[in-house]
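Work Package 3 (structural annotation) set out to generate three-dimensional models for the target panel prioritized at the project kickoff. During this period the team completed the workflow that converts sequence records into C-alpha cells, so that structures can be stored uniformly alongside our sequence database. As a representative example, we reproduce one entry of 206 residues exactly as it appears in the project archive.
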Amino acid sequence: MAQSRMNPQVEEYLRKAKKWQEESKKLRRIILDCGLTEESKWGKPCYTFQSSNVVIIQGFKEYCALLFCKGALLKDANRILIQQTENVQAARQLRFTDVREIAEMEPILKAYIHEAVEVEKAGLEVNYKKTSVPAELQTKLDATPVLKKAFKALTPGRQRAYLLYFGAPKQSKTRESRIEKCTPQILKGQGLNDDYVQTRKNKSTR
C-alpha cells in the first residue's frame, strides 16, 4: 500500500474512528491493492476508478460495510451482496463484524472489486426506475437555482430518498413543509438521514 496513494483525510478518519477501525484498515489495504484511487467523500473513505465511485467503506452500529456503488450490476457469484432497503436501486453491501471475516474473504473481495472496475471500464449504468418529482419540489427548485444545483449534485440514491419522502404525504401543505425542513440539508450536500446520523454521533461523543 504505497504512501502516495493514501489520502490524508482518510488517514484522519481512520485515526479518529472509535469503532471498526481495524476492519476499515483491512478493507482499505485490500481496496488499494486493487489499484483504486483513495478519496474522502460524504465523510467516508471512497475509492474511485477514473473519477467514478466504485466502493465506499461504511461504519454502522452493528457492522462495518463495504458498499459497491453499482453493486446491482455485479454478477454476485457467491450470493453475498446485500440490498439495504427495497428503495436502494444501485448500491449493494458486504457486511462484517470482525477482521477475521474480512481476511478470509480477501480473494472474493478482490474479485468483486475487480468486477466493479470492469463495470466502470465498460461504461455500464444502472437502469433507475423513475421517481416522479413532486410539484411542490419542482416549484421550489425552479425558484431557487442554488437549491436546484445542490439537489442535482446529490447521488441518485439520495435524490430518490428525498423524492420518496417529499411525495409520500397526501396533502400539499405537508409536502411543502417537508421540503422546507430538508432544504438546509440538501444545500449542505447531505442525504435525508445524514443530519440524524451526525446528531447521534455528536451525542455519543459528549
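The mean pLDDT is 89.
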